[in-house]
Amino acid sequence: MNRISAALLGISALALAACDGVEWHIFQGDDEGAAGPEKVASQKTADVEDETEEVPASPARKPALGEAEGTFALTGARLLTMAGDPIARGTILIEDGRISAVGADLDIPRGMPVIDAGGLTIIPGLVDMHVHHFGEAEGPLYIANGVTTVRNLWGTVQTVSLDRGAADGDYPGPRVYTPGPLTDGPEPVWGDQSLVVTSPEMMRGAVRAQKAAGFTAVKLYETMTPEIYRAGVAEAKAQGMKIYTHTPRAMTVEEVIALEVDSLEHLEDVHNALLPDGYEGGDGRRDYLQRWAAADEDKMRDLARKFAEKGVANSATLEVSINRYRDMMDTERFFESEQGAYVAKGIRDWWQGSADRSRPWLTPELVNAARDKQLRFVKILHDEGAPVLIGTDTPNPFIVQGFSLHDEMASFRDAGFTEEEILDIATRKAAAFLDASEEFGQIREGLRADLVIVEGDPLADLSVLRKPAGVIAGGRLYDRAALDDMLAEARAAAENSYVETVDEETPTEE
Ligand SMILES: [Zn+2]
Name one Pfam family in it (predicted). Predict the structure, then answer.
């Protein structure tokens, strides 16, 4: 297993070096983050203390859920169905991996195995709406964190295979929704790895080819001309495909919004639209953070209304857009945290190196000022009715699969979203965005039985989701012991692998 994992992690390292630059070149530089203590403090919100005590049974509960597969019943749990009011003590019947019934008083078919989930709370499986998923070895990290679905932002045949494998129960991993390959213009940021188009005609062909290959969305990138970009948007719409996008360098974010794309990633170019009149520009590598720190709050509402009016969702990816800078300013804290143990040694060296290069120009004041503005903008988007998505851009540096989704959700809490709003965005609304409301996202008859079972009350404290008592994915129930086994194996793989390929390849100096 270790040998295989190392190989897979090696693939990941190369590929993630690529995805990493997805943002790095935007930020014109290395990257890196800061200020850890706030992150911890932010999870301790005031309402935690009030409500955790009311949650029945968690302390007394000991028996493990046990494992189950295919057809079984879960009884006695509080159900946050995301399809209506919570059910205080409900039963879920699962047949062949799908929910066949949900309710307070259900007859359990004779002979159906029963799992007692009394005292626990069950929510739909969580969704990370911006990942780069490369291999089976990553699957358990998502599952152990309750992430049962991901939106992958650069599709390949490998990605599609990963989805099939997870669906068929070949390995524990999330279901994967993906556009085709990253599609870029004449000077592709990622070189030959991208699908390169150099004319509107080629662009239209590239979209149709992706449609024919079975992809349901396209990912449009940065170096295409406005003419090529518009051709891509028009053809994708004609083919009934979704459009996930960065802002091309030759266009403004307002121009992209006007085309009614489906999602903008990383708030890309938003900071330039929010600059105060007469802003003179920042300096070098600080420029990106300085622009955010300078953002004019009066302009936020107008821009948010444009997103709302055109129905363009923002996948803010606060983990990559800002939180990693905090981690970069205190790498010791990061690597000693629980998730640090899942970073392969070679990747760890690479992340450390990038942090070391960035630390000289990072200050907590700058990072926090930029972060405050990003959080403010995301909240204003939501208040104005513009859709927001919760995604992380794992595995960029300091963003570990699965674990990072909880950090992203904590940032949304910092931004002023309620726990209920956050859960809704990370489950029901994610499925709706993907046109998959009849597949997952709620606890409802007919949907996949992708479920997270926790002690405590996520509506009072989202951090209870970090250590599920059980997760159901691919038709199988993994209880805490099974999840711990998966994690132990992933830690061993990280410990025993060494990947030397990435450091110099990271295109941070784009
Ligand atoms: Zn990405």
Answer: Amidohydro_1
Report how far residue 78's alpha carbon sits from residue 86's, in angstroms, rounded to the nearest whole number: 7
Which DSSP letter does residue 485 get?
Answer: H
The tens digit of pLDDT for each residue in 184-235 reads 999 999 988 899 999 999 999 999 999 999 999 999 999 999 999 999 999 9
Q: Which helix (H) or strand (E) holds 408?
A: helix 403-414
**261-290 tens-digit pLDDT:** 999 999 999 999 999 999 988 888 899 999
Between CA 413 and CA 266 the distance in angstroms is 18
Which residue type, as a one-letter code, is found at position 280?
A: E
Query: Measured in angstroms, how far is the CA atom of residue 123 from the centroid of ligand 1?
Result: 27
Q: CB of 141 within 8 A of CB of 404?
A: no
Distance 19 CA to ligand 1 centre (A): 5
Per-residue pLDDT for 460 more than 70? Answer: yes
Give me the numbers of helices (H) and strands (E) for the chain, helices first please.
20, 19
Question: Does the reported pTM lie above 0.85?
Answer: yes
Distance 91 CA to ligand 1 centre (A): 38
Q: Which pLDDT does position 63 carry in this prediction?
A: 64
> What is the distance in A from the centroid of ligand 1 to the CA of 252?
20
If you average pLDDT over every residue of the chain, what do you get? 88
Q: What is the pLDDT of residue 61?
A: 53
Are 377 and 274 spatial neighbours (Cβ–Cβ below 8 Å)?
A: yes
Average pLDDT over residues 73-77: 98
Show the domains of the chain with their CATH numbers.
2-437+445-505 (3.20.20.140)
**Contact status, residue 217 vs residue 435, Cβ threshold 8 Å:** no
Is the per-residue pLDDT at 384 higher than 90? yes
Average pLDDT of span 381-402: 97
CA of 246 from ligand 1 middle (Å) equals: 10
Q: Is the pLDDT of residue 55 over 50?
A: no
> Chain-centre distance of CA 457, in angstroms?
22
If you count them, how many residues does the chain have? 510
Smallest CA-to-CA distance from 11 within 317, 350, 347 is with: 347
* Token pair listed for 269: 């170019």
Q: How far does residue 498's CA lie from ligand 1's centre (Å)?
A: 24
pLDDT: is 161 or 16 the higher one? 161
Whole-number Å distance, alpha carbon 441 to ligand 1 midpoint, is 22
How many Å lie between the centroid of ligand 1 and the Cα of residue 380?
A: 23
How many A from CA of 130 to the centre of ligand 1? 6
Q: Check residue 109 and report its DSSP letter.
A: P
89 C-alpha to ligand 1 centroid (Å) = 40
CA 400–ligand 1 middle distance (angstroms): 13
Q: Which residue has the tokens 């945290």?
A: 337
402 closest CA partner among 149, 171, 161:
149
